[in-house]
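Possible race condition, two jobs.
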Amino acid sequence: MNCTQARLLIGAEPHSADPELAAHLASCPACATFRDEMRALDARIARALEQPPQLAPARRPQRSPVWRQWAMAASVLLASVLVLGVWLLRPTDTLARDLVAHVQKEPDSWFAAQQVSAEGIAHALRRSGVAIDLTSDRVTYAQSCWFRGHYVPHLVVQTAQGPATVLLLHHEQVPAPRSFREGGMNGIIVPAEKGSVAVLAQGANVQLLAQQMQQDVRWLPESP
C-alpha cells in the first residue's frame, strides 16, 4: 500500500483496522500523523453534532419543527463536506507547506552561483534512488536533505527566468499535478514514475521545468 492509497482509506474511514494500512502506518510517520489528524477531526464533528443548540430567549414565535429538521440536515451536510474536503485536499496541501518550509530553511541555496560538478550532483543523488540526465552547468546547488523521514535530492537549477528549486520525492505520490502559491513562492508537484517531482520558484516557469524533470529523472532501486 502506498501513501495515496493509505490516505484515501483513512479519509473514508479514519478508524479502519485494515492490516495493510496498519503495516504502512508503522513505517510512514507522515501518514500516521494524517490518520491522527483525521481521527481528531472526526471526533470534533461527532461532538458538535451531539451537542444540543444553545438558543437565546426568543421574542419571535418558535420556528416550526420542519425548519429545525432542515437546519440539522444542513449541519450534517456541511460537516460531511468539510470531512470530504480534508480527505481530498489535506495530503497535498500539507506536502506543499512542508516543501515551502524546507526551502525557507535553506535561503542561501537561492543565491548559490558556482556550478556544481557532476560528482557533486551524483553525491546528492546517491542515497535517494534517483539518477538525472541534467548537465551540471545548470545546477548551482545540490544537497541530499532529510525530508519527511527520507533523504531526498534538493537541487537549484538555473533557468532563463531565474533559479528554481527541485526536490525529487521518491516516497511521496500525488494522483495529479498540484499547483500552489505560498511563502512568496510558486510551486507545483507532479506525479512521476516512482514518486513525484516538486518545483518551487519566485519567478521561473515551474510547470515547464517540472515537465522537463519528469523526462530527465530516472528512478532506481533505493540503496539499503
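Job #2 (started ~2 s after job #1):
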Amino acid sequence: MSKNVVLITLDEVRPDHLSCYGYERIQTSNIDGVAKEGVRLETCITASNFTLPSHASILTGSYPPSHGLREAYTPIQKETLAEILKIHGYLTAAFIGNPALSSKLNFHRGFDYFEEHPPVDRYDGAFRVEVAEGENIALHQVRKAKGETFGNWWVRRAVEWIKNNRSRPFFVWGHIFDTHRIGEKRMFYNGWIKPGELSEFDYYDAKIKCVDERFIGELLNGLKELDLYDNTVLIIMSDHGTNLGEHPIPMGTFGESWGCTSPYPEHCTMYEHDIRVLCIIKDRDLPQGKVIEGITRTIDIVPTVLELLDINVPVKFDGTSLIPYVERGESPIEEAYIETLFESRNPGCLQAIRTKKYKFIRNLTHGVEALYDLENDPREVCNLLYNVENFTISLEERQTLLYNWRKKMNEMLIKGPPERKVDLAVKEEITKRLRQLGYLD
C-alpha cells in the first residue's frame, strides 16, 4: 500500500520554543506527540533565512544556486517533490498561508491543486484564494467567516481535499503563516490569544501554542478520522527561525550601516536563532522517539522522503537521505551552506557555512566577515577574526579552514542555472506581496 505524504511548514518557528526541544514556558502537545512517534532532528539548518529560497530548497532538496530562486524575483528552476511524486501516480495539493510563496515564482510546480492568497492591504481581510488547477489559475471565493482575517487558515479545506482524493496516494504541502509576525492579528480577532498573555515579541509563544492546538491538532485529527494517519509520512518543520533580541541592531560588524530600527529584526541574520529550524519526520517504517544529533539540513528532506517511499529518481540533489543515520542517532554531515542574496531586507548579501564546531559568515555588501566557535561560544558574541587569541587551533589550520570556506562560497556565487528574472508586471505583484508581509517598506 503506497504511503501518503503531508509536509507542514511553520513560518519562523524556532525549535528552542517547542516543548519537544526542551522549552518549558509553553506546551506544544500535538507537535510533541508527532515527535514521540517519529524522528526529531536536533540541529537542522535551513538553506536560507528568507522564506522564498528556504522553501524552494525544502521542496527541491537543493541549495539556492541549484534551484535558482536566490532572492525575490527569480523563479524555481528545478524539479520539485510534487513533480516527482506526480510522475509516480500521486495526487498533489498545496495550501499556502504566506502570499509570497506564489505561483509567480513557480511554487505551484507539480501541484494539481495550488491554493494561495493574493496580495491584499497589509493587515486587511483576505477572503479570496487563488487556485491553480493544472495550468489554469482562477480566483475562488472563500466564505467570509470569523477567522479569515489574514493569511490562509486552510486546514479544513485541506482535510476536505484529502477526504475527496484518498482513493490514490497523495502529497499535501501546507504552509502555516500565523506563527509569523502579524499572525497575532487574526488570533486576537477570534479571541484565541489573550492580551498580555505570553505577549513578548509580538506574542511569539502565544502564536506557536495556538497553532499547535488549533491548527496542527485539527489536521492530525482529520488524518486519524479518515484512517490515514498511520499510512502517512508526516513532516512538520519550519523554514527558518527568527531573532528575539539576541542580536539587536546594530549587530557588531554586521548591519551598522543598515537602516533597520527594530530591536529584534526578524530572520535577517546568519546567527543560530535565524538558521536553525524545527524538523520532525514520522513514518510507519521509522523508529519512534528517535533523535538525530549532529548537523542535518532542510535540503535533506526530499531525498529522505523519496527513500521512505522507495522511489528512485535520476534527479541530482544537494541533500542526502537521512535514513541511514536514524538508527545510530547521529548525522555525519560535516557542514551546511546558507545564503540570502536579497539585500533589500537584509543587512547586505549574506553567506554562511555552519559546521559542528564553527560558523563562518560573510557580508558581501559591506565586505566584512565573522567566525564563531559554537562549542565554546554558543551565543555567537566573540568574532574570532577580531579576537585571534581565542583560537584553539594553529594559524596554519585557521588559514586552511578560511581558504576552503571562502572558496566554497565563491563557487556557490557563480553556480546555478542561467538567471531568469520575472517580467516587470510580475515583479510588481511580488513586491506588493512582500510589502504586505512587512519585508519591504
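The longest strand covers residues 290-297.
Logs attached separately.
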